Amino acid sequence: MTPENRKAYWRSNVLLLVVLLIIWFAVSYGLGIILVEPMNSIMLGGYPLGFWFAQQGSIYVFLVLIFVYAAMMNRLDKKYDVDE
Amino acid sequence: MNNLDIWTYAVVGTTFALYIGIAIWARAGTTGEFYVAGKGVHPVANGMATAADWMSAASFISMAGLIAFNGYGASVFLMGWTGGYVLLALLLAPYLRKFGKFTVPEFIGDRYYSKAARIVAVICLILASITYVIGQMKGIGVAFSRFLETSYAMGLYIGMGIVAIYAVLGGMKGITYTQIAQYVVLILAYTIPAIFISLALTGNPLPQIGLGSGYAPSGGEISLLDKLDQVVTELGFKEYTTQVLGSSLNMFAYTLSLMIGTAGLPHVIIRFFTVPKVKDARYSAGWALVFIALLYTTAPAVGAMARLNLMDTIQVGEVGSPEGNLLYEDRPEWFKKWEATGLLQFEDKNDDGRIQYYDDTNAEFAPKAESFGWKGNEMVKVDRDIMVLANPEIAGLPNWVIALVVAGGLAAALSTAAGLLLAISSAISHDLLKGVFMPSISEKAELNAGRLSMIGAILVAGYLGLNPPGFAAGTVAIAFGLAASSIFPALMMGIFMKRMNNIGAIAGMLAGITVTLLYVFQHKGIFFIPGTEFLGSMQPDWFFGISPNAFGAVGAVVNFTVAFLVAAVTAPPPDHIQHLVEDVRVPRGAGEATGH
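YS: structure for the whole thing
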């Protein structure tokens, strides 16, 4: 692996991390804590939406984030030929 | 012996026999098998084992009770104890797996080319794990004494004996396969009663949906959460769906501390050393969260429904009407049973023979209560921890369900205790003995040393379970505070900042630990020893209203800042360390893990 490739691979990895962590922050701290009051004026079935994000929604989003990360990194590993 | 006793002995006995059977089948023959199960665990199997490793007596028994009485405020536990897996999967697990050694302090020692750093990490690991394991031991003792009518001490000895058999014999290999069995037991025990209760209250068998559905006993017109809000506010309690824990800032810091702490707890991290490849470590973290989420998304329904059932049991009619409150002599059977344990206590303050359960600290509600002739809240003690255990009885479920819940609580406590004990014993035999004091020790001798230190750790944990020191009460604050303020930042900077050097990392860890521990100890004494309190006249949450339990996040910020500043003015790490970091960042070549 050339030093340039190594750098490009790492940069793509970090970029993916930053995007996913922004979503991670937005659903839990954003919708579940900081914006919980305005969110609660919207209803999801019998759930106020802010309450739902804090006690259910953010957990589902966390799950999606990890599997998206694993899948995207697999693709990246193959692209740079560093997969196992 | 009555029917319930027979069921309880049968179910608990069967699960214990299963754990011992697995232990004999999965014996460890090498240090690799003892420390990391030979690195051959399938990622889904490891995910399941991680879920059992992670979900302790606190998750199984205490969390739903915290939710029942803190409502929305308890979201910090739900988000904090799951969101940490995102950090673990994205920032730590794959890289530490690539590094390919046996323990967490080993990475810190190698990366920061310093035995001192390794020893600091060992001390943090042992402190955090010991406080954590005491809680599990207590859980085992309580479950035995309440349901199998042994003494607390006898329950503890039986629990220690079971863990000793499979952890000493099988090490990580034995622990992994028993944890998988324990996960199955605990998730069935948690979800089956929840399904029954959700069905009764909402007509929907899925608790995750039921919590957001209509309240069936009143025809489904009003939603269950609205009904709950109404029931609790009529009695002066805070509105369930909006009550906060301290303040919004405190909830923010609390959630962050639990997330960073979760990602930094060594007994969880080492589980990701057991899978064959880097790729597997990434997926395995996702699978772990799938199995954890099954319980964590059920818990909010369990908490809310238990609270509603409890309120409805006591407040049988309209608030304020003379017949609105339950007659004490008509109290149900489960009520009497828990009264006998002292975890539920009633005191007839206005001598009317009826039970009044309301918030007597609410000044706005006080005039109303007075006009009803109430003289204070008469449920003088409602221990939060009884909610999950009493739930099946409150809902009138059959005896086999109650027996299963007991086995589930024991599985949760045993699986976490075993994981913690392994982290402690490998830190002693691998990091201290082989790493620092006797580098030339043979593999066979190290394996024996690992087994001996496991026995030692079990004896210490058992002793502390029988004689809990003051700091056992601060488990959450200490374990998560230490992991968040010391281990997580050191690991993350080791991977993401090539420039981070030995002096910076050690200074950061020490600063993070010091700040966090001082904040926890300020009012309760150094290590909770009476007489060593300081800052007596200030509020325990003087720093922007952040409670001691939520302070790990601040400790982590201090760690990062100090490490960054110190590293900027000291020499960069040598070339071979910079190469090590580059190597850790690339998956290819993870192969077999080694202890050298």
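YS: worth flagging: Chain B touches chain A through 51 residues (CB under 8 Å).
IM: good catch. Also The radius of gyration of chain B is 25 Å.
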